[in-house]
Amino acid sequence: MTHMRVLLAAGVLGVVVAATAALAAAGPLDGAGSKVLNCAACHGAAGQSRSDAMPILAGAHPVYFKKAIQDYASGKRLSPEMEPYAKQVLVLGLDEIAAYFAAQRREPSRVKLDAAAVERGRTASTQCAPCHGPAGKGDADKGVPDIGGQPPGYLRNQLLLFKAERRSPGDEAVTKMKALLKAVPDDTLGDLAAYYSSLR
Ligand code: HEC
Ligand code: HEC
Fold first, then answer.
1. Residues in Cβ contact with 186 at an 8 Å cutoff, skipping those fewer than 6 apart
2. How far apart are the CA of 54 and the centre of ligand 1, in A?
3. 101: which residues sit within 8 A by CB, 6+ positions away?
4. What pLDDT was estimated at residue 31?
5. pLDDT for position 80
6. Which residue has its alpha carbon closest to ligand 1 atom 17?
7. Is any ligand 1 atom within 6 A of the Cβ of residue 125?
8. Which residues of the chain have pLDDT under 50?
9. Distance (Å, whole) CA 64 – CA 70
10. Pocket-testing residue among 49, 132, 176, 198, ligand 2, by greatest number of atoms within 8 A of Cβ
């Protein structure tokens, strides 16, 4: 080996060691964990988003998670940001990646909430409880997501998209919820988002 090659090899090794250390700090070095490293740029390490706009993936029910990925990949749920990543997940292994995020314990959003909005949202949430449950945990088998502790900005935005028929148009899984949301004023959608974000 020439001197140059030895230097190059040492450099590559250094990068590998640094990357391995970063991985070990982020969580277990399992197969799925290493397949979803690039999700962290938007969804946070191990899916624990700290942003108001990006959903937390940690603790997502697998049935719901898999449907979301399939809907993005097929274009049913429109998101130019998510579509390429959803297609990547289908190639890398949907079941394994869904199981990885389901196994992460959700760290609820720390975005500051307005206490009065949370209380108004609590009152309005009785109409959501038949499907989302009294604590917002949803129904893992029926594909109803756990929305407790999600960032309020993300929740509010999705509610507005549903109401305007801009999320998953024509999807029968959400016909009933959309019919309900049409009658809810936008301000109340913000209150509902604050309430569900506050749940632990
Ligand atoms: C460039 C930023 C970005 C990256 C990288 C990214 N996502 Fe997303 N993701 C988003 C955005 C934005 C949304 C919300 C889109 C919408 O409005 O439906 C989203 C939504 C999702 C949802 C739906 C969550 C819910 O509660 O409905 C899932 C599941 C998801 N992403 C999985 C992943 C996975 C797995 C990866 C890595 C393979 C990934 N994302 C990488 C930006 C990103
Ligand atoms: C008839 C059952 C039903 C009712 C009632 C209902 N939902 Fe839903 N909700 C669902 C289902 C099913 C989904 C998953 C949609 C999908 O597959 O894309 C969902 C998804 C959501 C999401 C998206 C979560 C995410 O991670 O992107 C939010 C937010 C939400 N519901 C809030 C509410 C609120 C607030 C109410 C009350 C005003 C409500 N829902 C009433 C069934 C329901």
1. 160, 163
2. 7
3. 36, 47, 57, 58, 59, 60, 65
4. 84
5. 97
6. 79
7. no
8. 1-2, 6-26, 29
9. 10
10. 132
